[in-house]
Design brief:
The structure is a single chain. With 640 residues, the protein is an alpha+beta fold. Helices cover 35% and strands 13% of the residues. It is built from 20 helices and 19 strands. The chain has an eight-stranded mixed barrel with strand order 5-6-7-16-14-13-8-17. α1 runs antiparallel to α2, α4 crosses α7 and α10 packs antiparallel against α15.
């Protein structure tokens, strides 16, 4: 007993803090000191009540010291972060991108310059207090552009603004229609976008300043239109998508060559069909003058099919207002309070569209959806979704896979047609799924599950301290640093804390945490898609239960669809799975995969569905927008 107490105390010193950190509870530490195994349950959602390997289904693939004896399946590199990290905002991440003074002291004047060109040269060489600020990546391209063109102006002449400038200003004045902010692009020298330069004194120095302001505004617009207002990676590590702004030098050459800068700038907006639908929805929700006043339905008891409630009349009128139902022309007072079958069917359809359980019962959630969010809330979500589309490549390719985490859905497009759609389970708020674009390279039939160290410490170690044979009995394979299989019962687990020289693998089988198939698209967070034995979780409308990976409701349909174009028949796939052997299949043609987070989604008519901000990302992105606005309105940024 004395020796046991020493062991418990030793483990307290070496491992207690680690287990406390991993589990988020002091219960495990109390258990260590008491000589018993007390495991604090992780923060699972109430519906996540499966067995151990079903609760911890899809913790990410991690490098494992085991050397596979069967055909080796693709695994992420050692230095990649595991999925399942909270989306913690970076320190100072919400500070806007730095803007610097547009000036170059060592500029050389051109051999021949008129009065206006000389003024442009002087402004760039010594701007003084009237300096214009631009992104660091834009200063050199602007200076080089004017140097190479003899400092000749693009936008102004001795008479003021030219036609190109007027077209540019007209386009930028409508930036709000694109979910941007028009005031970001208004030159400080102008009173508003209708100002044709009359407010500017016609002196060469004033015209030169306006010239540079317009060039800076045009490049600012090209950047925001093509890559967004906020750089995703500045928000958090889980935003590893790389938004690609238009090259400033190429943009300037295009602006020089064209007489229609507005047409060129408009072409930089996202081309995705959903972006166009969102733009239409934005205009619709902003048109509050013609908007009909929303009928408000008060709360109360649950309303079930066949029941009577005075609020049914309001429900029917609200559904009519939404274009989903037509209230009978002649309806008595008694009929108007009866929850009839026709109305129940319409309510079920509305519930399904709103992401609620389509059971026909009218309760708080359904009433909340019927009463709707304010126009301002809907507009905000639409703008955020439009911003996130700017982070994607302009060309999504004809064949791609899209995951919308906020709607818990995935689908595949091929040649402009949707060929697959499935409900998905994404990471819980503590272990959020990431945002990125990668390419699917491999499909693995009968996958192994390589247990991440976070799960080993979270949930396995407490069981092993109580029963060293736990892993062996549960069918897991333990390997040492040399890849040799070790009996878990032979290991003194009390000796190990933060350092663990063992790898743990769950072989393929009917209870494997990854199910029968997984889909790999290498990424920094080691996130992938996979099957799951925990089918009951798909019954929930809010499906944030995983450790970051994407669980598919219809994985075999997905595998057969993709592998069908790779020469695999459904029978061949089923036969391969029936062998129980691990089978990685390298795809001949990689498929783009886009993991995103869009809390607003619109249809072709501009009708929009919204979802709750499960991960809190809308709030953070709105904060980043606000920081940008504050920075641009500061005296340091520009004087108006």
């Amino acid at each position: 007993m004395y020796l046991g107490c020493i062991r418990h105390f030793y483990l307290f010193l070496t491992q207690g803090s680690e287990i406390m950190r991993k589990t988020g509870s002091s219960l495990a530490l109390v258990g260590l000191l008491a000589g018993v195994s007390i495991t604090a349950a992780p923060n699972y959602a109430a519906a996540d009540t499966d067995d151990f390997f079903q609760q911890l289904l899809d913790a990410p693939t991690r490098s494992n010291p085991q050397k596979a004896t069967t055909q080796r399946e693709v695994r992420p590199a050692k230095k990649r972060r595991a999925a399942g990290h909270s989306d913690t905002v970076r320190e100072n991440a919400l500070q806007p991108e730095a803007f610097i003074v547009l000036a170059q002291k060592k500029l050389k004047p051109a051999e021949q310059m008129d009065e206006l060109s000389t003024a442009v040269y002087s402004f760039l060489a010594k701007p003084g207090s009237a300096a214009v600020r631009v992104r660091a990546t834009q200063r050199k391209p602007i200076v080089d552009f004017y140097q190479d063109n003899g400092f000749a102006p693009l936008w102004v002449g001795t008479d003021g603004l030219n036609d190109k400038a007027k077209r540019l200003l007209a386009l930028m004045s409508k930036a709000d229609e694109e979910g941007l902010r028009a005031l970001d692009f208004l030159p400080a020298s102008l009173a508003d976008f209708n100002d044709t330069g009359n407010s500017v004194e016609r002196s060469p120095s004033d015209l030169a300043r306006l010239e540079i302001e317009l060039t800076a505004a045009a490049l600012d617009f090209t950047h925001q239109a093509s890559a967004g207002r906020v750089k995703p990676i500045r928000i958090s590590d889980l935003h590893s998508i790389k938004a690609k702004p238009v090259n400033p030098s190429k943009a300037l050459l295009k602006l020089k060559e064209t007489q229609e800068p507005d047409t060129y700038l408009a072409s930089l907006q996202p081309t995705a069909l959903q972006y166009k639908y969102l733009k239409k929805a934005l205009a619709k929700y902003r048109n509050t003058e013609s908007a009909e006043k929303v009928i408000f339905i008060p709360g109360g008891k649950l309303i079930k099919a066949g029941g009577s409630d005075s609020r049914i009349e309001l429900v029917a009128k609200r559904l009519q207002q939404l274009g989903l139902y037509e209230v009978p022309a002649e309806q008595s007072g008694e009929d108007s309070s009866f929850y009839n079958p026709d109305l129940v069917a319409v309510v079920k359809g509305f519930q399904k569209k709103s992401g609620l359980n389509a059971e026909g019962i009218i309760g708080p959630q359904t009433l909340g959806a019927l009463n709707g969010k304010s126009d301002a809330q809907a507009v905000s979500k639409i703008i955020l979704s439009m911003e996130r589309f700017r982070w994607l490549p302009q060309d999504l390719k004809s064949k791609y896979i899209f995951v919308n985490q906020a709607f818990f859905e995935t689908w595949m497009m091929d040649g402009g047609k949707e060929v697959y759609r499935s409900d998905v389970i994404v990471g819980r708020p503590k272990f959020q799924s990431a945002v990125f674009d990668e390419e699917m390279e491999t499909i693995v039939l009968n996958p192994n599950w390589y247990v991440p160290r976070s799960i080993i410490f979270d949930s396995m170690l407490p069981k092993l301290l109580k029963n060293p044979a736990y892993l062996r009995d549960a069918g897991y394979v333990v390997t040492d640093a040399k890849g040799q299989v070790v009996d878990s019962a032979s290991i003194d687990w009390w000796e190990y804390s933060a350092t663990m020289p063992f790898g743990i693998r769950q072989p393929p089988g009917p209870t494997n945490a990854l199910g029968r198939v997984k889909f790999l698209f290498p990424n920094k967070q080691s996130i992938y898609m996979h099957d799951t034995p925990a089918r009951n979780l798909f019954n929930n409308k809010v499906r944030a239960f995983s450790y970051g990976c994407i669980r598919l409701k219809k994985p075999m349909e997905f595998a057969k669809l993709i592998l069908g174009t790779e020469g695999w028949s459904p029978e061949r796939i089923e036969a391969a799975i029936a062998t129980g052997e691990n089978k990685p299949i390298k795809l001949k043609t990689k498929i783009p995969v886009y993991l995103g987070y869009y809390t607003a989604w619109a249809d072709a008519d501009g009708n929009v569905e919204t979802r709750n901000d499960t991960y809190g990302r809308d709030r953070v992105l709105n904060q980043a927008f606000e920081q940008n606005i504050q920075a641009r309105s500061s005296k340091k940024f520009a004087s108006r």
